[in-house]
Protein backbone atom coordinates (compact mmCIF):
# COMPACT_ATOMS: atom_id res chain seq x y z
CA UNK A 1 0.00 0.00 0.00
CA UNK A 2 2.65 2.42 1.13
CA UNK A 3 4.86 1.42 -1.72
CA UNK A 4 2.10 2.05 -4.17
CA UNK A 5 1.38 5.57 -2.91
CA UNK A 6 5.09 6.33 -2.95
CA UNK A 7 5.32 5.26 -6.53
CA UNK A 8 2.31 7.41 -7.52
CA UNK A 9 3.87 10.38 -5.79
CA UNK A 10 7.08 9.60 -7.58
CA UNK A 11 5.42 9.44 -10.96
CA UNK A 12 3.52 12.66 -10.22
CA UNK A 13 6.76 14.31 -9.24
CA UNK A 14 8.45 13.20 -12.41
CA UNK A 15 5.57 14.49 -14.51
CA UNK A 16 5.75 17.87 -12.73
CA UNK A 17 9.46 17.82 -13.36
CA UNK A 18 9.05 17.17 -17.04
CA UNK A 19 6.45 19.93 -17.26
CA UNK A 20 8.85 22.30 -15.53
CA UNK A 21 11.65 21.44 -17.88
CA UNK A 22 9.42 21.94 -20.89
CA UNK A 23 8.38 25.36 -19.55
CA UNK A 24 12.04 26.09 -18.99
CA UNK A 25 13.00 25.07 -22.48
CA UNK A 26 10.19 27.18 -23.91
CA UNK A 27 11.42 30.13 -21.91
CA UNK A 28 14.98 29.74 -23.05
CA UNK A 29 13.94 29.25 -26.67
CA UNK A 30 11.79 32.40 -26.53
CA UNK A 31 14.78 34.34 -25.34
CA UNK A 32 17.03 32.64 -27.86
CA UNK A 33 14.74 33.60 -30.71
CA UNK A 34 14.61 37.19 -29.60
CA UNK A 35 18.33 37.40 -29.00
CA UNK A 36 19.12 36.21 -32.52
CA UNK A 37 19.85 39.78 -33.14
CA UNK A 38 21.81 41.01 -30.24
CA UNK A 39 19.96 44.28 -29.97
CA UNK A 40 16.62 43.21 -28.78
CA UNK A 41 16.53 41.55 -25.41
CA UNK A 42 14.36 43.19 -22.85
CA UNK A 43 16.18 42.54 -19.61
CA UNK A 44 13.76 44.18 -17.26
CA UNK A 45 12.08 41.77 -14.86
CA UNK A 46 9.65 44.42 -13.72
CA UNK A 47 6.11 44.67 -14.99
CA UNK A 48 5.00 48.17 -15.84
CA UNK A 49 1.83 49.73 -17.08
CA UNK A 50 1.91 50.59 -20.78
CA UNK A 51 2.26 54.31 -20.19
CA UNK A 52 5.76 53.71 -18.83
CA UNK A 53 6.65 53.16 -22.49
CA UNK A 54 5.82 56.80 -23.26
CA UNK A 55 9.29 57.79 -22.08
CA UNK A 56 10.68 55.95 -25.11
CA UNK A 57 8.29 57.89 -27.33
CA UNK A 58 9.76 61.10 -25.93
CA UNK A 59 13.34 59.83 -26.41
CA UNK A 60 12.37 58.97 -29.99
CA UNK A 61 10.97 62.47 -30.56
CA UNK A 62 14.31 63.97 -29.49
CA UNK A 63 16.16 61.57 -31.76
CA UNK A 64 13.88 62.39 -34.69
CA UNK A 65 14.37 66.14 -34.25
CA UNK A 66 18.16 65.72 -34.11
CA UNK A 67 18.14 63.56 -37.25
CA UNK A 68 16.21 66.20 -39.18
CA UNK A 69 18.06 69.24 -37.90
CA UNK A 70 21.48 67.69 -38.52
CA UNK A 71 20.29 66.72 -42.04
CA UNK A 72 21.43 63.17 -41.31
CA UNK A 73 18.23 62.00 -43.01
CA UNK A 74 19.05 63.91 -46.17
CA UNK A 75 19.65 61.83 -49.29
CA UNK A 76 22.07 64.55 -50.39
CA UNK A 77 24.17 64.31 -47.22
CA UNK A 78 24.41 60.53 -47.61
CA UNK A 79 25.58 60.91 -51.21
CA UNK A 80 28.22 63.42 -50.07
CA UNK A 81 29.39 60.98 -47.42
CA UNK A 82 29.82 58.10 -49.88
CA UNK A 83 31.68 60.40 -52.28
CA UNK A 84 33.96 61.81 -49.55
CA UNK A 85 32.69 65.28 -50.43
CA UNK A 86 31.78 66.36 -46.92
CA UNK A 87 32.98 65.75 -43.40
CA UNK A 88 29.54 66.34 -41.91
CA UNK A 89 28.30 62.73 -41.65
CA UNK A 90 31.67 61.44 -40.45
CA UNK A 91 31.68 64.15 -37.81
CA UNK A 92 28.15 63.26 -36.67
CA UNK A 93 28.74 59.49 -36.48
CA UNK A 94 32.26 59.85 -35.06
CA UNK A 95 31.30 62.24 -32.28
CA UNK A 96 28.18 60.15 -31.52
CA UNK A 97 30.36 57.06 -31.09
CA UNK A 98 32.86 58.88 -28.86
CA UNK A 99 30.02 60.24 -26.69
CA UNK A 100 28.49 56.75 -26.54
CA UNK A 101 31.83 55.18 -25.63
CA UNK A 102 32.44 57.60 -22.77
CA UNK A 103 28.85 57.08 -21.55
CA UNK A 104 29.14 53.28 -21.59
CA UNK A 105 32.50 53.49 -19.82
CA UNK A 106 31.03 55.75 -17.11
CA UNK A 107 27.97 53.50 -16.67
CA UNK A 108 30.25 50.49 -16.23
CA UNK A 109 32.73 52.26 -13.95
CA UNK A 110 30.15 53.72 -11.59
CA UNK A 111 27.73 50.77 -11.97
CA UNK A 112 24.95 53.20 -12.84
CA UNK A 113 21.49 51.71 -12.38
CA UNK A 114 18.30 52.32 -14.35
CA UNK A 115 15.66 54.70 -12.99
CA UNK A 116 13.96 51.57 -11.58
CA UNK A 117 17.14 50.56 -9.73
CA UNK A 118 17.95 47.63 -12.00
CA UNK A 119 21.53 47.08 -13.13
CA UNK A 120 22.45 48.10 -16.67
CA UNK A 121 23.67 45.08 -18.63
CA UNK A 122 25.75 44.76 -21.76
CA UNK A 123 25.75 41.87 -24.18
CA UNK A 124 28.77 41.11 -26.33
CA UNK A 125 27.92 40.62 -29.99
CA UNK A 126 28.99 37.40 -31.66
CA UNK A 127 30.65 37.52 -35.03
CA UNK A 128 28.99 35.72 -37.90
CA UNK A 129 29.23 36.06 -41.68
CA UNK A 130 25.93 37.95 -41.66
CA UNK A 131 27.74 41.05 -40.51
CA UNK A 132 29.72 40.96 -43.76
CA UNK A 133 27.06 39.87 -46.27
CA UNK A 134 24.20 41.67 -44.58
CA UNK A 135 26.38 44.68 -43.94
CA UNK A 136 27.22 45.00 -47.63
CA UNK A 137 23.57 44.55 -48.66
CA UNK A 138 22.47 47.21 -46.19
CA UNK A 139 25.22 49.50 -47.52
CA UNK A 140 23.82 49.07 -51.04
CA UNK A 141 20.35 49.99 -49.81
CA UNK A 142 21.61 52.91 -47.74
CA UNK A 143 23.23 54.51 -50.80
CA UNK A 144 20.09 54.02 -52.92
CA UNK A 145 17.45 55.20 -50.44
CA UNK A 146 19.69 57.67 -48.64
CA UNK A 147 18.21 56.37 -45.43
CA UNK A 148 18.98 53.82 -42.76
CA UNK A 149 16.01 52.59 -40.71
CA UNK A 150 15.85 55.52 -38.25
CA UNK A 151 15.83 58.19 -40.96
CA UNK A 152 13.11 56.30 -42.87
CA UNK A 153 10.73 57.00 -39.98
CA UNK A 154 11.93 60.60 -39.64
CA UNK A 155 11.56 61.24 -43.39
CA UNK A 156 7.95 60.06 -43.29
CA UNK A 157 7.40 62.43 -40.36
CA UNK A 158 8.72 65.38 -42.35
CA UNK A 159 5.93 64.80 -44.85
CA UNK A 160 7.73 62.75 -47.51
CA UNK A 161 4.81 60.33 -47.64
CA UNK A 162 6.24 58.32 -50.52
CA UNK A 163 8.89 56.98 -48.11
CA UNK A 164 6.08 54.89 -46.60
CA UNK A 165 6.64 52.66 -49.64
CA UNK A 166 10.35 52.39 -48.74
CA UNK A 167 9.37 51.47 -45.18
CA UNK A 168 6.93 48.77 -46.34
CA UNK A 169 9.62 47.43 -48.63
CA UNK A 170 12.12 47.36 -45.75
CA UNK A 171 9.58 45.45 -43.64
CA UNK A 172 9.18 43.02 -46.54
CA UNK A 173 12.97 42.64 -46.70
CA UNK A 174 13.10 41.82 -43.00
CA UNK A 175 10.28 39.31 -43.43
CA UNK A 176 11.99 37.57 -46.36
CA UNK A 177 15.20 37.39 -44.32
CA UNK A 178 13.27 35.65 -41.54
CA UNK A 179 11.77 33.26 -44.09
CA UNK A 180 15.06 32.14 -45.69
CA UNK A 181 17.30 32.65 -42.67
CA UNK A 182 18.15 28.96 -42.28
CA UNK A 183 19.41 28.73 -45.86
CA UNK A 184 21.75 31.72 -45.64
CA UNK A 185 25.40 31.45 -44.62
CA UNK A 186 25.99 32.79 -41.11
CA UNK B 1 17.48 81.49 -29.83
CA UNK B 2 14.80 79.84 -31.95
CA UNK B 3 16.52 81.20 -35.05
CA UNK B 4 19.71 79.39 -34.09
CA UNK B 5 17.81 76.14 -33.51
CA UNK B 6 16.12 76.50 -36.88
CA UNK B 7 19.42 76.56 -38.75
CA UNK B 8 20.98 73.20 -39.66
CA UNK B 9 22.84 71.87 -36.64
CA UNK B 10 26.59 71.39 -37.01
CA UNK B 11 28.03 67.90 -36.54
CA UNK B 12 29.68 68.75 -33.23
CA UNK B 13 26.27 69.51 -31.72
CA UNK B 14 24.23 66.76 -33.40
CA UNK B 15 26.76 63.94 -32.98
CA UNK B 16 27.15 64.19 -29.20
CA UNK B 17 23.36 64.57 -28.82
CA UNK B 18 22.83 61.35 -30.80
CA UNK B 19 25.52 59.69 -28.68
CA UNK B 20 23.61 60.65 -25.53
CA UNK B 21 20.62 58.58 -26.70
CA UNK B 22 22.75 55.53 -25.80
CA UNK B 23 23.01 56.21 -22.04
CA UNK B 24 19.50 57.71 -22.01
CA UNK B 25 17.93 54.42 -23.16
CA UNK B 26 20.18 52.36 -20.88
CA UNK B 27 19.24 54.43 -17.85
CA UNK B 28 15.55 54.70 -18.71
CA UNK B 29 15.12 50.93 -18.81
CA UNK B 30 18.26 48.98 -19.72
CA UNK B 31 17.46 49.23 -23.42
CA UNK B 32 20.12 48.94 -26.12
CA UNK B 33 19.76 51.61 -28.80
CA UNK B 34 18.61 50.00 -32.04
CA UNK B 35 16.16 50.93 -34.75
CA UNK B 36 16.10 48.12 -37.29
CA UNK B 37 14.73 45.64 -34.71
CA UNK B 38 11.47 47.59 -34.96
CA UNK B 39 11.02 46.20 -38.48
CA UNK B 40 11.32 42.69 -37.08
CA UNK B 41 8.80 43.44 -34.33
CA UNK B 42 6.37 44.74 -36.97
CA UNK B 43 6.75 41.43 -38.86
CA UNK B 44 6.26 39.46 -35.63
CA UNK B 45 3.17 41.50 -34.78
CA UNK B 46 1.53 41.58 -38.21
CA UNK B 47 2.61 38.52 -40.18
CA UNK B 48 4.59 35.96 -38.14
CA UNK B 49 3.43 33.21 -40.59
CA UNK B 50 4.80 30.51 -38.29
CA UNK B 51 8.38 31.51 -39.14
CA UNK B 52 10.59 30.71 -36.10
CA UNK B 53 12.44 34.03 -36.46
CA UNK B 54 9.17 35.88 -35.78
CA UNK B 55 7.77 33.56 -33.12
CA UNK B 56 8.46 35.54 -29.99
CA UNK B 57 6.50 37.83 -27.75
CA UNK B 58 6.95 41.12 -29.61
CA UNK B 59 4.98 42.93 -26.92
CA UNK B 60 8.03 42.61 -24.67
CA UNK B 61 9.85 44.77 -27.21
CA UNK B 62 7.05 47.31 -27.54
CA UNK B 63 9.38 50.03 -26.22
CA UNK B 64 11.18 49.87 -29.58
CA UNK B 65 7.95 50.58 -31.47
CA UNK B 66 7.23 53.54 -29.16
CA UNK B 67 10.75 54.80 -29.85
CA UNK B 68 10.41 54.67 -33.65
CA UNK B 69 6.95 56.26 -33.44
CA UNK B 70 8.68 59.06 -31.57
CA UNK B 71 11.23 59.40 -34.37
CA UNK B 72 8.35 59.87 -36.80
CA UNK B 73 6.71 62.49 -34.57
CA UNK B 74 10.09 64.18 -34.09
CA UNK B 75 10.49 64.38 -37.86
CA UNK B 76 7.09 66.03 -38.11
CA UNK B 77 7.83 68.55 -35.34
CA UNK B 78 11.24 69.48 -36.75
CA UNK B 79 9.90 69.91 -40.26
CA UNK B 80 6.91 72.02 -39.22
CA UNK B 81 8.10 74.08 -36.27
CA UNK B 82 11.90 74.17 -36.58
CA UNK B 83 12.12 74.36 -40.34
CA UNK B 84 15.03 76.03 -42.06
CA UNK B 85 13.61 77.74 -45.18
CA UNK B 86 16.89 77.46 -47.11
CA UNK B 87 17.55 74.43 -49.30
CA UNK B 88 20.09 71.80 -48.24
CA UNK B 89 23.54 73.26 -48.92
CA UNK B 90 25.43 70.58 -50.75
CA UNK B 91 28.94 70.24 -52.08
CA UNK B 92 29.23 72.05 -55.47
CA UNK B 93 30.73 68.90 -57.02
CA UNK B 94 27.73 66.81 -56.04
CA UNK B 95 25.45 69.62 -57.14
CA UNK B 96 27.04 69.65 -60.59
CA UNK B 97 26.87 65.86 -60.87
CA UNK B 98 23.21 65.72 -59.82
CA UNK B 99 22.25 68.63 -62.11
CA UNK B 100 23.52 66.50 -64.96
CA UNK B 101 20.78 64.01 -64.12
CA UNK B 102 18.16 66.74 -63.80
CA UNK B 103 18.14 66.71 -59.99
CA UNK B 104 17.96 70.38 -59.10
CA UNK B 105 15.38 70.52 -56.34
CA UNK B 106 17.22 70.64 -53.00
CA UNK B 107 14.33 72.21 -51.11
CA UNK B 108 13.65 69.01 -49.23
CA UNK B 109 15.79 66.48 -47.37
CA UNK B 110 14.42 63.85 -49.76
CA UNK B 111 15.21 64.54 -53.44
CA UNK B 112 11.71 65.35 -54.71
CA UNK B 113 12.88 65.04 -58.34
CA UNK B 114 13.62 61.36 -57.69
CA UNK B 115 11.26 60.30 -54.95
CA UNK B 116 7.60 61.11 -55.32
CA UNK B 117 4.35 59.26 -55.93
CA UNK B 118 4.77 59.54 -59.72
CA UNK B 119 8.34 58.24 -59.98
CA UNK B 120 7.65 55.22 -57.82
CA UNK B 121 6.09 53.52 -60.82
CA UNK B 122 9.15 54.11 -63.00
CA UNK B 123 12.16 51.78 -63.10
CA UNK B 124 14.32 54.47 -61.47
CA UNK B 125 11.86 54.97 -58.63
CA UNK B 126 11.43 51.22 -58.21
CA UNK B 127 15.18 50.69 -57.87
CA UNK B 128 15.74 53.64 -55.52
CA UNK B 129 12.76 53.22 -53.21
CA UNK B 130 11.44 49.66 -53.44
CA UNK B 131 14.62 47.70 -54.17
CA UNK B 132 16.62 50.05 -51.93
CA UNK B 133 14.14 49.69 -49.07
CA UNK B 134 14.14 45.92 -49.43
CA UNK B 135 17.95 45.84 -49.18
CA UNK B 136 17.82 48.06 -46.08
CA UNK B 137 15.37 45.70 -44.34
CA UNK B 138 17.02 42.47 -45.48
CA UNK B 139 20.60 43.66 -44.96
CA UNK B 140 20.15 45.16 -41.52
CA UNK B 141 18.50 42.04 -40.17
CA UNK B 142 21.08 39.78 -41.80
CA UNK B 143 23.81 41.92 -40.25
CA UNK B 144 21.97 41.94 -36.91
CA UNK B 145 21.71 45.71 -36.71
CA UNK B 146 21.93 49.01 -38.53
CA UNK B 147 23.74 52.27 -38.06
CA UNK B 148 22.32 52.67 -34.57
CA UNK B 149 22.68 49.10 -33.31
CA UNK B 150 26.10 48.40 -34.79
CA UNK B 151 27.78 51.68 -35.65
CA UNK B 152 26.70 53.67 -32.61
CA UNK B 153 26.02 51.42 -29.63
CA UNK B 154 28.08 48.49 -30.93
CA UNK B 155 31.17 50.64 -31.39
CA UNK B 156 30.45 52.40 -28.08
CA UNK B 157 30.70 48.97 -26.43
CA UNK B 158 33.94 48.28 -28.34
CA UNK B 159 32.44 45.27 -30.13
CA UNK B 160 34.62 44.18 -33.03
CA UNK B 161 31.75 42.42 -34.91
CA UNK B 162 30.06 45.83 -34.99
CA UNK B 163 33.23 47.37 -36.36
CA UNK B 164 33.27 44.80 -39.18
CA UNK B 165 29.58 45.43 -39.85
CA UNK B 166 30.17 49.20 -39.97
CA UNK B 167 33.05 48.79 -42.42
CA UNK B 168 30.82 46.63 -44.63
CA UNK B 169 28.00 49.23 -44.50
CA UNK B 170 30.48 51.82 -45.75
CA UNK B 171 32.03 49.58 -48.42
CA UNK B 172 28.57 48.70 -49.75
CA UNK B 173 27.58 52.36 -49.79
CA UNK B 174 30.76 53.44 -51.56
CA UNK B 175 30.30 50.81 -54.26
CA UNK B 176 26.68 51.67 -55.00
CA UNK B 177 26.93 55.46 -54.67
CA UNK B 178 29.94 55.71 -56.99
CA UNK B 179 29.48 52.83 -59.44
CA UNK B 180 25.81 51.80 -59.54
CA UNK B 181 23.86 54.95 -58.70
CA UNK B 182 25.13 56.91 -61.74
CA UNK B 183 23.77 54.13 -63.97
CA UNK B 184 20.39 54.23 -62.23
CA UNK B 185 20.19 58.03 -62.35
CA UNK B 186 20.85 58.07 -66.08
CA UNK B 187 17.91 55.69 -66.73
Mean pLDDT of chain B: 94
Number of domains of chain B: 2
Please give the domain count of chain A. 2
Query: What is the typical, i.e. mean, pLDDT of chain A?
Result: 86
Spatial extent as radius of gyration of chain B: 19 Å
Question: Can you write the helix and strand succession of chain A as a string?
Answer: HHHHHHH
Would you report the number of β strands of chain A? 0
Shape by Cα distribution of chain B? globular
Most extensive interface, chain pair and sizes: A-B, 131 and 136 residues
Total beta-strand segments of chain B: 0
Strand content of chain B: under 5%
Secondary-structure blueprint of this entry?
The complex is a heterodimer of chains A (186) and B (187).
Chain A (H helix, E strand, L loop, with lengths): L1 H33 L19 H16 L5 H8 L5 H22 L20 H16 L3 H9 L5 H18 L6
Chain B lengths: L1 H5 L4 H19 L7 H10 L15 H20 L10 H9 L22 H21 L3 H10 L3 H26 L2
In words, what does this structure look like?
The complex is a heterodimer of chains A (186) and B (187). Chain A is mainly alpha-helical and 186 residues long. In chain A, helix 2 packs across helix 6 and helix 6 packs antiparallel against helix 7. The model of chain A has no long low-confidence stretch (mean pLDDT 86). Chain A has 2 domains: 48-84 and 126-186, no CATH class; 87-123, no CATH class. Chain A contains 7 helices and no strands. Chain A has helices spanning 2-34, 54-69, 75-82, 88-109, 130-145, 149-157, 163-180. The longest helix of chain A is centred in the first third of the chain and has 33 residues, at 2-34. Chain B has 187 residues and is mainly α. Chain B has 2 domains: 1-83, no CATH class; 114-187. Chain B contains 8 helices and no strands. In chain B, helix 3 crosses helix 4 and helix 7 packs antiparallel against helix 8 (160-185). The termini of chain B are far apart. The mean pLDDT of chain B is 94.
Amino acid sequence: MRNQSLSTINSQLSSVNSQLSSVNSQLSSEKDVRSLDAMCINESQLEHKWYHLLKYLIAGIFFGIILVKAEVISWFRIQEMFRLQSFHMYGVIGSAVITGMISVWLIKKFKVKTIYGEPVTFHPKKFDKGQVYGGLLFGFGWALTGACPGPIFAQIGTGATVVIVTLLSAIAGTWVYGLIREKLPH
Amino acid sequence: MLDIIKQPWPWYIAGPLIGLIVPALLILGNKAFGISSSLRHICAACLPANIPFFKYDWKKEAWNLFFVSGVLVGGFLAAHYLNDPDPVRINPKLNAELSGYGITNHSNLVPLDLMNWQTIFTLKGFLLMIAGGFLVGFGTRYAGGCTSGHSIIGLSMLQWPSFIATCCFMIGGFIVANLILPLILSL
